[in-house]
TrEMBL record:
This is Beta-N-acetylglucosaminidase. The lineage of its organism: Bacteria, Bacillati, Bacillota, Clostridia, Lachnospirales. Residues 38-112 form the SH3b domain. SMART domains: SH3b. One of its GO terms (biological process) is polysaccharide catabolic process. Residues 610-679 form the Dockerin domain. InterPro entries: Cadherin-like_domain (IPR025883), Dockerin_1_rpt (IPR002105), Dockerin_dom (IPR016134), Dockerin_dom_sf (IPR036439), SH3-like_bac-type (IPR003646). It comes from the Bacteria. The chain crosses the membrane at residues 12-29. It comes from Anaerobium acetethylicum. Keywords: Membrane, Transmembrane, Transmembrane helix. GO terms for molecular function: hydrolase activity, hydrolyzing O-glycosyl compounds. Gene3D superfamilies: Dockerin domain, SH3 Domains.
């Protein structure tokens, strides 16, 4: 007979030693055999989903279970199946009991044991296979050198980093303590009252919405791939055979739960539900505190004899009250009439609602980027405190008597389009209030009217005004400073004046006032006016083919149209078309009010049509604030328009020769991109 001896690395075949004794025609062989060396491993998959466990080595065998991603397993045997793949015989604990079966070896990541001769090249190859970005590797290499027994697994979420941050930054999704630095606190709508300078409580006044900057910091895995407790937020929360009551005792040390009975309860709750008892102990401690709370005392008035060690269902009412009572209502409904029933019932809740759904790390329970069921990604999150994963990690570290040498598996998320450098922790403090309460120019009205979040304004002053007085006040009565106010000299034409409001924390908001000081009017129609020159338009008969409107003048031309485009769009059979400017020179470039379209027959001018672009009152081809000024001066009888420029100013196309506030409004809406003037 031939005995197969298996070790961790390969099959070793021991050839039977032939004794060479011939007795009664029978050959007798002695054999030497050796038991399989068990190994620890973790279930892995490219998709991050569960992997089938079968009754035999091969896909043709019956499925007996589906091991979740990150499940810790013990490999008790191995063989090469008929499909050519190596298969592992595994066992692990689940909620239904101990599962034993077979799984293909490439779905199990073997945990290296102390002393394994893994080289730097091996580790680099492993990082490549896992798909870790280079920006992660600088941290992982350092950790691997210090902790060769640690296993790092990448989970590619398939999610865009910027999308994730945008979703997790939505109001109320993540909270920070109201005593946090101001740069940790959001100023988005509903999070901060700019009029009072105070943050709005989300879960009582002690918790406020987290800023996008601090969300980036706590969500960036690279910030926690360090030699310390915070990396434990990526530890797999499945039960592992290496976990024991001693580790639980270390976590609960100094708390009201530091007794053998609680150590037993947490261990059994973890074992029975295939959840890390270290996680259960630290989570409970996080929820009820070292001295316990009303939810764990069993003596809360009206709910005596009921316990909720995980604060399950302890959501606050709309006014921020009632969280504790709501949790005890849940405890009463579940029948948690003892600490043991509460802890074991709570463990089942955590398993069914989070760990078995793929949220099997502290990180994933806080930031749901893996479970799309229920309300979807970013919604099914155990806690709102953005610091909870790092805080609980500190408690979990106490479980390890030899943290540096322990064999721990970490499941680390990877996102698409991440920046090359890890997000920095915001550090600025002080009030962020940098809005103005008022902004005035003495003697004039701003357009539009002042509003603290509107940052751009304009006004027009006469040509004889060479300075203005600007004043402003800040909403923040202390800590904010204002620059750019006082007397400002004005040059003819456009003047841009910046007023800056700087908050106590250094954030700057810039307001701009554009002041147009009018210049001595040069009437654009006074000389060389492009009225028809009296040529006899009956000298010849012709037909103009064009989409433009042609009467006494030609209109319907969009601003920015070139002379070349204009000529191409006007067809006069048997005639030549030319475009000239106001000085009668051949026109090139952009068409503007005051240009002319001329019709020639045998080099004889037979008809001329002035060009009108509604709103281009100055004749420069643009519709802007200077045109506003020309119309305003016309309506105030400061300087009248004449000729074709009156037609250009008639933006509402009343064709009555009267220019009024309605025409002014049409240009203002055009300039502000509210509604364009129809040509």
């Amino acid at each position: 007979m031939k005995t197969v001896i298996r070790t961790k690395l390969k099959h070793i075949f021991v050839v039977a030693a032939f004794v060479g004794i011939l007795s009664a025609g029978i050959y007798i062989f002695n054999t030497v055999s050796e038991a399989y060396t068990e190994q620890s491993g973790t279930v892995t998959s490219i998709s991050g989903g569960a992997v089938n466990v079968r009754s035999g080595a091969g896909t043709t065998f019956e499925k007996v279970a589906a091991a979740p991603f990150g499940q810790a397993v013990t490999v008790i045997d191995e063989t090469t199946a008929s499909d050519g793949y190596k298969w592992y015989n595994i066992k692990y604990n689940s909620v239904t009991g101990t599962i034993t079966g077979w799984m293909r070896s490439d779905y199990i990541l073997i945990t290296p044991v102390s002393g394994d001769p893994s080289t730097d090249a091996d580790f680099e190859a492993y990082l490549n296979a896992q798909g870790f970005p280079e920006s992660y590797r600088v941290y992982l290499r350092d950790l691997h050198a210090k902790h060769p027994n640690w296993v790092f697994r990448a989970q590619n979420t398939g999610l865009d980093w910027n999308t994730v941050i945008n979703e997790e930054s939505k109001l109320g999704t993540n909270l920070v303590s109201s005593s946090s630095p101001s740069s940790w606190k959001s100023t988005q709508d509903g999070a901060y009252n700019w009029d009072t300078g105070k943050w709005i409580g989300m879960d009582t006044s002690n918790w406020v919405a987290a800023s996008e900057g601090i969300v980036k910091y706590f969500m960036d895995p690279r910030n926690f791939l360090v030699d310390g407790s915070s990396i434990l937020q990526f530890e797999s929360l499945s039960f592992a055979n290496t976990q024991n009551k001693t580790g639980i005792a270390n976590i609960l040390s100094g708390s009201f739960m530091a007794t053998d009975n609680y150590y037993r309860i947490f261990y059994e709750a973890g074992f029975d539900n295939n959840i890390s008892p270290y996680h259960l102990a630290s989570r409970s401690l996080q929820e009820v505190g070292y001295n316990g709370s009303g939810s764990s005392s069993g003596t809360y008035s009206g709910y005596e004899g009921f316990y909720n060690f995980f604060n399950i269902g302890s959501t606050p009412n709309a006014d921020g009250s009632g969280a504790l009572v709501n949790g005890l209502i849940r405890a009463k409904k579940e029948g948690w009439t003892s600490p043991e029933l509460s802890i074991k019932g709570g463990a089942k809740f955590v398993g069914n609602n989070y760990i078995y759904k793929g949220q099997n790390t502290l990180y994933y329970q806080k930031f749901n980027v893996v479970y799309s069921g229920g309300y979807g990604l970013y919604r099914h999150q155990y806690m709102t405190n953005i610091q909870a994963p790092t805080s609980e990690s500190t408690k979990m570290k106490k479980a390890y008597t030899d943290f540096n040498a322990s064999a721990i598996t970490f499941i680390i998320p990877v996102y698409k389009n991440m920046p090359d450098i890890a997000a920095e922790k915001p550090t600025k403090d002080g009030s962020p209030n940098n809005v103005l309460a008022s902004l005035v120019v003495d003697g004039y009205s701003l357009t539009p009217y002042f509003e603290k979040f509107t940052e751009d304004y304009s006004l027009i002053v006469p040509s004889d005004v060479n300075s203005v007085q600007i004043g402003a006040t800040a909403v923040a009565t202390s800590g904010a400073s204002i620059k750019g106010v006082g007397v400002k000299e004005l040059q003819p034409g456009e003047n841009k004046i910046d007023i800056q409001c700087t908050a106590e924390n250094g954030d700057v908001r810039n307001y701009t006032i554009t002041i147009i000081r009018t210049v001595e009017e040069i009437n654009p129609g006074a000389e060389g006016e492009n009225d028809p020159d009296g040529e006899d338009d009956t000298a010849d008969n012709f037909v103009i083919e064009s989409n433009y409107k042609i009467d006494e003048f030609i209109s319907g031309i969009e601003p920015g149209t070139s002379s070349e485009q204009l000529i191409l769009n006007i067809k006069v059979a048997g005639y030549n078309v030319k475009v000239t400017d106001s000085s009668n020179a051949i026109k090139t470039g952009k068409i503007m009010t005051g240009d002319s379209v001329q019709i020639y027959k045998d080099n004889v001018l037979v008809k001329e049509y002035p060009v009108v672009i509604y709103g281009d009152v100055t004749g420069d081809g643009n519709i802007d604030s200077l045109d506003l000024l020309y119309i305003k001066r016309h309506t105030l009888n400061i300087k009248a328009l004449s000729g074709i420029y009156v037609n250009a100013a008639d933006t509402n196309k009343s064709n009555d020769g009267i220019i009024n506030g309605l025409d002014l409004l049409y240009i203002k809406r055009h300039v502000l991109d509210i509604k364009k003037i129809v040509q």
